[in-house]
């Protein structure tokens, strides 16, 4: 691995094994000899004054929920959640958890990071998902999406969409720009979420392991474009993602995202300040930096994410990955399908915010 050559997906160097989920253990009380605990009887309960007998009900120790005397509260479920949370903390503190070769921490992603992203996804952007059935239930596949929004929240929302709406609950492994992995805190969180560099080597390894991989070939050209050019796809690089899919025989799934373009309307770019800070651009919006930290709050637009029909690649011979004309044609096909779907979704949209 140390001698492998890293090949970027496009010329602007915008580069980006799942572990089994621990089984949920049911809290069944047992005696030391292994036999189940005896059934409890909820008998007549009385209070001082007027006697109000309750109906007798046999409740097994693991019968959940017990609502006769708790006012409808699921105390058993609450206890299990508390116990699960404490067990999770114990594993984190003792180091009894696993990450893969890329730093992906599935347990932390499912139990913490997705829980933090989900309210933004469901309540703030109110994302509507279409065509999730086009994503295969197993095996490697490459999702190719448009990129926009000044700040790359669209990739995170796409991750939640796949995880929460796909019947198999698949995890999307995003290929991220190298800038992501030099920023403090962001670097660690990205690794934990399963992100890795957008290079051909990492992409092929993930696809070869049967992972679902996401790439946004527009890179910084997409998220940093002016508001006046919204929903107009930028160049897709040199088709490196197509070559990767061809080598692994993985289907390519076009994905169109509407709503992200308007969260930070970019009306200007402070290029000099961007060069000083080492950023590809420094956005100027109607609220940022004029309102300070408040200007960094995205607008609550209504999002739609649509996954298109897969484009198969397993029918091509191995040497097809080196055919520049084939890569150009497939890249153009994917780009045109995404652009056409964007226009169709925009026509159907009632409002930016509703």
Automatic annotation (TrEMBL):
InterPro entries recorded: P_lipid/glycerol_AcTrfase_prd (IPR016676), Plipid/glycerol_acylTrfase (IPR002123)
Gene Ontology CC annotation, any one: membrane
UniProt keyword annotation of Acyltransferase present: yes
Region feature Disordered, mapped onto this chain: 1-39
Alphabetical list of SUPFAM superfamilies matching this protein: Glycerol-3-phosphate (1)-acyltransferase
Transferase in keyword set: yes
Alphabetized UniProt keyword annotations: Acyltransferase, Transferase
All residue ranges annotated as the Phospholipid/glycerol acyltransferase domain in the record: 141-260
Segments of skewed composition (Basic residues): 22-31
Pfam families linked to this entry: Acyltransferase
GO molecular function list: acyltransferase activity
Protein name in the entry: Glycerol acyltransferase
Species the sequence originates in: Streptomyces phaeofaciens
